[in-house]
Amino acid sequence: MEIVLDGLPLARRLTRASALLDITGLEVRYGGIAALRGVAISILPGQGVALLGANGAGKSTLMKAIIGLVRAAAGEIRFDAVPIGSLRPDRRARRGIGYCPEGRRVFPGLTVAENLAVACWGDVARKTDEMFALFPALAARRASPAWQLSGGQQQMLAVGRSLMNAPRLLLLDEPSLGLSPLLTDEVIGRVPEIVAGGTSVLLAEQNAAKALSVCDVAYVLKTGVVTAHGPAAALAASDDVRAAFLGG
Amino acid sequence: MKRIAACLLLTAAASAAHAASVTLPVLVPLTGFLAVEGASQRNGAILALSTPPAGVTAKYDVSDTGVSPEVAVNALERAAGDKPIAVVAPMLGTQMLAMLPVAMEQKIPLLTISGTAAITRQGNPYIFRFFPDDATTKIAQVRFALENKGVKKPAVIYQTTAYGQSGHAEIVNALKKAGIVPVYEEALDVAVKDMAPVLAKARAAGADSLIVHLHGGPSALLLKAAAASGLGLPIIAGSGLSQPSTINLLEPAELAGVCAETSSSPVSAESPAMQGFLDAYRRKFNADPDGFALAQYDGTMMALEAVAKGATTPAALTQALSSGSYAGLAMTYKSNGRGDMAHSAVIICYDGKSRIPKVVAHYTNAAAD
Amino acid sequence: MRRADAMLLLCVAAYGAYAFAAGSSYTLRVFSVAGIYALAAIGYQFIFGQAGALSLSQGVFMGVGAYASGILALRFGLGFDAALPFSVGVPVLLALAVAVPVLHLRTHYFALATLIISQMVLLVAVEWQGLTGGANGIGGIGGITILGMPIRAGWPLAATVWVCVALGAALSAWLMRGRAGHAYAVLREHPAVAGAIGLDGGRMRLAAFVLSAAFAGFAGSLYVHVIRVISPDVLGFPVMVTLLTIVMIGGRLGVAGAVAGAVLVIELPEWFRPLREYTLLVYGAILLLVVVAAPGGLVGALRLLLPDRAPPAPPALAASPALAELSGLAALSGASGLLLEIDGLARHFGGVRALGGVSLGLRAGEVLGLIGPNGSGKTTLVNCVTGLVAPDAGRVRFAGADITGLRADRVAHAGIARTFQTVALVDDMTVLDSVAIARPRTDFATARAQAMTLLDRLGVADIAQRRCGGLAYGLRRRVEIARALALQPRLLLLDEPAAGLNETEQADLSRRLRGLAADGAALLVIEHNMAFLAPLADRMACLDAGVLIAQGTPAEVQGDARVIEAYLGRPAAVSRPA
Amino acid sequence: MLALQLLFNALALGAAYALVALGFVLILNATGAVNFAQGDLVMAGGYGGLVLARMLPVPGVVLLPLLMAGMAALGLMVALVAYFPLRRRPPEAVFISTIAIGIILQNGTNILFGPELARTPALLGDGEFRWLDGVGGGLVVSAQSVAIIVVAALLIAGLHLLFSRTQFGRRLRATAQDREVASAIGIPVDAMVAATFAVGVALAGAAGLLLARGFFVTPNDGGNYMLKAYIAVTIGGWGSIPGAVAGAALIALFEVVFPALPALVPALGGPAFSQNGATIVLDALILVILVARPQGLFGEASKARA
Q1: DSSP strand pairing (B259-262 vs A217-222)
Q2: For chain D, which residues lie within 8 Å of any Cβ of chain B, measuring from their own Cβ?
């Protein structure tokens, strides 16, 4: 067990070749302002990875850079060892990256079933049934327009939608946002199941304890820089995490 | 009279006294809601300009005036730079009103077929109108309705355009003189599609006939709706219905018993000279001429004849047009002192079997002569 | 004036010189008509450019002005000059009448509303034949006379029209110089900020609309005496489309754009007249090409090609008059001794509870840190206090007065300033002007000098003349805080001021904020960054799901079990698959 | 009987207007921009029908799919020329670029076909059915009007099926609702927007063919249809598809039934019930709707426009 601050440990260098997602030297700028600087992250197949950090630390920006909604000013993003940095978002999604945006952003005028269907390029009926099995609360509301759902149901729908195309990597951006603790448990509690199904998960969360409890590995972002990373259990006990949120 | 016109046309070469080359630009609306009428104007003028009297060569350029006064004035100012002997001016009344002061400044005679009454009432010596004004045509329309159709309780339906409002005033005037008040009046926008409400209201008002003063398209829509609803009332329409391109959209049966006023009906080919014009027009433009085309042809020809007789400056031409008389194909043209050259109108009627109307009545506005 | 704008005006002047030298009545007439459209377009820039509202009634204002002048000339023999109060006044009255129901509508709804009003005016003009002559219009209107002197067609007329254009352009430039132009830029780009710095957006939009109508009416009265006929054509949609095209092609802002656009758009079809029926086809194609190729219009394109030289030096610091001191504010507090009292404030959005009855107090000279997870209602609280959002329930009292539901600009004038979570500065404006604009009731030169003092106070005086667009994040933050301070607030609400700042910058900001509090201002600081907030705040409060869950000293709040849980959460009560 | 006749006429006219409005609202939803050429595209559809009819002497119903395919291609061109280069600009830019497209279409057809009235072939035939001839003028139902209603109903139903039952249609809707997320879950949004233009313009073309039989077509007709679509969409609720259909129906009622009310109810009268009066009353009604119920009659309150 080791925690490495602002460095690249030897172990990580060894795993790069087999990584599902490998990011090096990523820099993203908004106007003249760097939102991410020199970010390096690696995710193995079947791994649950927590991305921790306070508001404004750059978690969402990193998610968007991976799916392609923001352009990287520098650095490389490899998925399955293939550089994807120049691809359009829809191309990246079709290669096997599922994206569940911050704030849910379900399609309000589409029904629950339709929200799921539009994200699927395979057997829609089978995948839809799978999602209803994963989130039974959604099954009862399959014909309701998404805007009528409660916040928790919308979040489940957004997660379900991002899983419809059987992604190998799922990007979950702040799924607990605006949810009660009970609902947060219900949504984040699905992560181990998803990981067990063979999908790697990158979970950006400000609810650090919960995120760490369901992930194997964690990265801590602070003002656009990775300040710590390591096994989840180690980070849970670390002062770095607490510091990232509550100062000190 | 018509024989004289024919002779004039055939012997034009012999009567040429002077050789002259003149510029006579054609400024007419080729885009916008009056583009059909403008095209008739252009064709009539071009036919005259391309077959001028012997000894005269006419240079002409065609320019679009659209429908706004501003563009028409620009076009006239631009044409004035070429030192024209006269210009063919658009039939849109508002454009003519705007062009009149410029014509006065530049001393250029305007040859037009606009029916708007006001344009010859501005005291402008440079306006020459070769189409009977609204008073003449509407008196003909109303007299025909009263005298031939026995109309007592007419419904008057007109357009909200300059053409429609100007004609409407004259219709109501003419009816008033005969002591008749329309039982129903309605003004229609050119965009009105469904004529059923108008017909229903006319019927509900107890109308015994429709006196219609609409542009070509709306006239056709009205006739279609009337035929479909089995209205069964006499319809006496305005010159909008005399255009062959409009008539072609209607089935002959839909036209049965419908009459309309116009200045002339070239497709009816009442005389050999008119037949000659009809043939020449069809050859050149692959279309049928209407009364507007013939009037503009006559008017342009009158000017060219005057040139042939020595009126080779705008001033001389103005003088010649305002004092002379010309036996054209449609009628004899002579100014009443204000620039109104045409003083008679015809009524055409359709028999329900053919799209070619018969000229059933000629009316001359004696008061204007 | 910017170099690009000057260059465009020079081009127009050169063309004008050519037109006058050529002396053909055709060229001069078209140039005169272009001048009339230029005037109407300069007016259109107020509402469409400055206020950023797509109005489709500018053509009708011009037409109404034309009708007013034309009818007065025909019925009462009034000359162009004598009729001016009416030809400008009638469209202005129409604009005022229309503004009440529709001016608050946004984007396409405003566009459609103004379009429909235009259609109604056109119908009235066509139907009211007794007054307007109906569709036939009325001819025989005299040319322009000034003090009884008739202006001949040709160069005297063109000169008269273009003198009017020059006067109109000068008036427009004068009205939009200094504060007003910058105020409209803020209103257009960041409407919420406009309220927060005390600008009355509604009144500004109304002023722009009325000015548009006035210019249009003036242009219309020229038009009717040049075309010498009144007809409904001048009220028709094509005139409106022409004006819109002029401004889109020339540029939405800056009189140079309107003038150059008008000359191009009016002259172009005349240049292509030899193409006959293809004229308008080619015109349409060129219009499309220009819109696609030059998004900012001619002005925008030229400004890229001809960037401005180095800006003039800022006002000297030494000469800056000092701002009134902020101290002595404690006396203004309410009976309870609190400057700000929030009592039971609640707000729902749709079915979501953003604030569920929050009560808080703040004394003068105190710094209160407000923390809470994302979505816990912190920003909504600030929005409710500053009048951006109306609360469903609860009261807000400030310095003893009830300010609940007060409009944002009034709240600002009462002495409450704020910053925004995402920095909202106008990219094209200089730092100095961005701050000076918020100085209330001060002439702009003084305001700029005072703004220098504030910039200096925040350590950014050296970038005063730079445009905000290219600034680094930390600098933008400080400019925004300086702008809030320019209101001389007694209460300052800061929404995540440290976000995006590095540690040195944070320390610097913290020191400066403490200084403000020491002067007697009250500060409410929303922040996630505890390292920054804890030393700065006298007290801290924590919101979670719209409810206050803790209040006390920073140490107390940071150690509170509920706060830690709200931030770090409990471990999920799920078992991992084996 | 007259009332029935007028309602039927309004239904036929409203059905055609609904297609115009639907094409408009689809593009509006997908791009957030007003396609000001929509009316001119309806006009172009009329002339397209004319061209096809000259090449193929078959009933209009057979020409309709061909025309819609051709118009869809034209829609793609419009998207390529007037929308995609401007998609990152404020919506006013597309406003102007589509006005330019309208100018080009209007003058292009004027050059190609001349200004005369033109007429497309009937969908099926020109027959008409008459009932109760004796009673108050009887009820006349032309085959063309029935065909318009049936074709429009089929197209609207087809559109509904497309949007609710096909992946393609659902993805079009998803793209219209949140373009960024749509692209992030794998939907090629540019292709979807282009497809929306194709569908929207194909509908305009269909409306053109339907309208140009009974009401003819000239190159100047575009502006009028554009205004109708704009108004229908606003009455119904900006972006609402059922709203656009209802708005179109309301416009048709105001054109056909409202001005005829004095013939139905003799007590009514006055200038309000003239054809122009009806337009002013409708205009005033729209202003009231805009001010009092900004989300339109069918829009959701959540999509407020202020």
Answers
A1: unpaired
A2: 2, 5-6, 9-10, 13, 106-107, 110, 114-117, 119, 128, 133, 137-138, 140, 142, 211, 214-216, 218-220, 224, 255-257, 259-260, 262-264, 266, 274-276, 279
Is there a contact between B93 and C270 if contact means CB atoms under 8 Å apart? no
Go through chain D and tell me how many residues it has: 306
Q: What is the DSSP letter of D79?
A: I
* H/E stretch holding D55: helix D38-55
- Our measurement of the distance from residue A63's CA atom to the centroid of its chain's CA atoms, rounded to an integer in Å, reads 7
- C-beta atoms of C545 and A180 within 8 A: yes
Q: Which fold has domain C3-305?
A: ABC transporter involved in vitamin B12 uptake, BtuC (1.10.3470)
A210 touches chain C (CB under 8 A): yes
Question: Are B22 and B152 within one domain?
Answer: no
Q: Which of A17, A39, A14, A16 is nearest to A26 (CA)?
A: A39
What is the pLDDT at residue A244? 63
Enumerate the domain spans of chain C: 3-305, 322-427+490-575
Same-domain check for residues B73 and B103: yes
Residue from D166, D167, D178, D185 whose CB has the most chain A CBs within 10 Å, to mutate: D185
What CATH number labels C322-427+490-575? 3.40.50.300
Could you give the CA distance from residue B201 to residue C503 in angstroms, rounded to a whole number?
82
**In 3D, which of C555, C403, C425, C556 has the Cα closest to residue C491?**
C403
Q: Is the dihedral of CA C267, C269, C270, C274 positive or negative?
A: positive
CA distance B27 to B110: 10
Residues B154/B234, Cβ–Cβ less than 8 Å: no
pTM higher than the cut 0.80: yes
User: In this complex, does chain A touch chain B, defined as having at least 3 beta-carbon pairs under 8 Å apart?
Assistant: no
pLDDT averaged per 10 residues, chain B (length 369): 46 53 94 89 96 92 90 92 94 92 93 89 93 90 92 94 89 93 93 90 91 92 89 90 87 91 90 93 94 95 94 94 93 93 93 91 70
Q: What's the N-to-C CA distance of chain B in angstroms?
A: 17
User: How much is the ipTM here?
Assistant: 0.86
Residue A51's DSSP bridge partners are A204, A219
List CB contacts (< 8 A) between B102 and chain C.
153
Residue pair B259/B352 in contact (Cβ under 8 Å)? The answer is: no
End-to-end CA, chain D: 44
Cα gap A37→A61, rounded to integer Å: 11
The verdict on a CB contact (< 8 Å) between C228 and B118 is no
Residues B12 and B122 in one domain: yes
Q: Is the pLDDT of residue C566 over 80?
A: no
Kindly list the residues from chain D whose CB atom is less than 8 angstroms away from the CB atom of residue C281.
103-104, 107-108, 111
B201: domain range? 134-262+346-368
Residues of D in contact with A164 (CB under 8 A): 185
Residues in chain D with CB shorter than 8 Å from the CB of B197 are 6, 256-257, 259-260, 263, 275
Residues of B in Cβ contact (< 8 Å) with C126: 160, 165
Residue type, D237: G
Chain center to CA of D113: 23
> Which residue, C233, C294, C292, is CA-closest to C260?
C294
Q: Which amino acid is at B305?
A: E
pLDDT per residue as tens digits for the range C232-257:
988 988 899 899 989 988 988 889 99
Cα(A116)–Cα(A118) distance, rounded to whole angstroms?
A: 6
Distance CA D250, CA D258 (A): 10
Scan residues 73-102 of A and list those with Cβ closer than 8 Å to D.
88-90, 93-94, 98-99, 101
3-class SS letters over B78-96: HHHCCCCCCEECCCCHHHH
CA distance linking residue B102 with residue C32, whole number of Å: 15
